[in-house]
Amino acid sequence: MVDNYDLSKLKLVCSDLDGTLICGKYNACLVSERSAKVLQELEAEGVQIVVASGRPPRSMEPVLELLKLDHPWIISCNGGIVLDNKQKAILKSFPIVQQHVYPAIKNIKDALGDDVYIGVESGMMFKCEEGYAAMRGPANMNHPYKCISQLEDFACEPVEKLVILHKTWDAEQLHKYISSQVFADAKWEDIINITFSNVHFIEISATNVSKGTTLKSLCDENQYTADQVISFGDMANDVTMLRFAGKNWDGSLCVRKASKSISDYLLFCLGIGVAMENAHETAKKAADFITLSNLNQGVAVVLEKMLQQIRSKSAN
């Protein structure tokens, strides 16, 4: 499928980490030399590299060290934070409106009680209930964090992301219940955005804050247009950036212009959204095409073709 696209026109590559660029299990830091090499070579050709993850800054840093990029843009917490690569400082933050943080948490706890545990990403700090830390275990909590006993205390400082963990439900089941039952009132659509990036928990950000909206904002500020962007992802929280790159925001398909035959076409309207073979169905539906799985380095496969086309075009 990738052979049908003119990749030489692209100026910006945006990739998710877990399940996408990372070729290991969730929350691992395994990036292949092949993936790192093609990203470095594209950067040397003048292509802007963007790493966009639901991860907080602290767990993105080890991956960025492996990639060895000179000037990547770093989107953290599902678009809630833009991180400076050199100083590892927060450049931009898009928190949930502070007055709505406690009411949102209270709604969740009132509905599900002690069957759920709360965590919050607040700048560079993670705060959570003791039950959250216990359930996630030492392997996942191997970073500084603060245990909170009073729910009101979660709202004392800006919160870029709420993390909700259920004792027995997976993320998809919890997402469905939270969206349809806890925040069924239409007013919440103007306050929060609910998504998930793995099977373990759901994530809540401010409304209109997502990987896609933050990517669009950075592109607008730096004079990149959607038709110059290719994005890679595998989960529900990647849908907005896949649609920004390759489909209209309402999810409708781009218009394709036929060349010599219907089966031999090039994409002329927008950029390209690529889902992984291992992707959640929501990501696959949002994408223009599906590459190989993360374990088979599907991102590198596409980007190597892009690099080849760029160099071939430059040589002509």
UniProtKB/TrEMBL annotation:
InterPro entries, alphabetized: HAD-like_sf, HAD-SF_hydro_IIB, HAD_sf
A GO CC annotation given for this chain: cytosol
MF terms in GO: magnesium ion binding; phosphatase activity
Pfam families associated with the record: Hydrolase_3 (PF08282)
Top-level taxon in the UniProt lineage: Eukaryota
Name this protein carries in UniProt: HAD-like domain-containing protein
